[in-house]
């Protein structure tokens, strides 16, 4: 019982690490340093250092899994519809019909709206990661769509080896692919709600 009383007394006598002269009302939810009521309200219970700390980078596995999920979500509906058309109309070139690509366009629209709201596609949301600018601010939709997706896909169409080079950049210390360097983005772990 005396250990508990001593712990309570030490907390009540502690000062805020960011605002000297103010008594601590709690501890930072991330690192445990003492914070005052102003810090607890303004920074959601975190100290100044933890609020401005860089988010943790996403793992290579999470990025690969998110990419595979996004690719499957994009291709499988169109492939399924194409197979159904081939079975129904065996004489026509079913995969050349424009209706086969309608599901892919719908998926691209859904993905764009997800990215606009959270900075994460469906695969990234499932894996708990998101795309941010190099300085940690949210990345704009145009930056993600054009510089991270459309430009690399267009270049890979002409230079097939560029896809391998793009992926190999992920091995580096900063875990940024070539398209991340071009777009000025990085992929980080998303904070849990």
TrEMBL record:
Q: Cellular location of this protein?
A: Cell membrane
Q: What organism is recorded for this protein? A: Corallococcus carmarthensis
| Name under which the protein is recorded | RDD family protein
| Transferase keyword on record | no
Query: How does the record say this protein sits in the membrane?
Result: Multi-pass membrane protein
Pfam families listed in its UniProt record: RDD
Cellular-component GO terms for this entry: plasma membrane
List residues of the RDD domain: 58-184
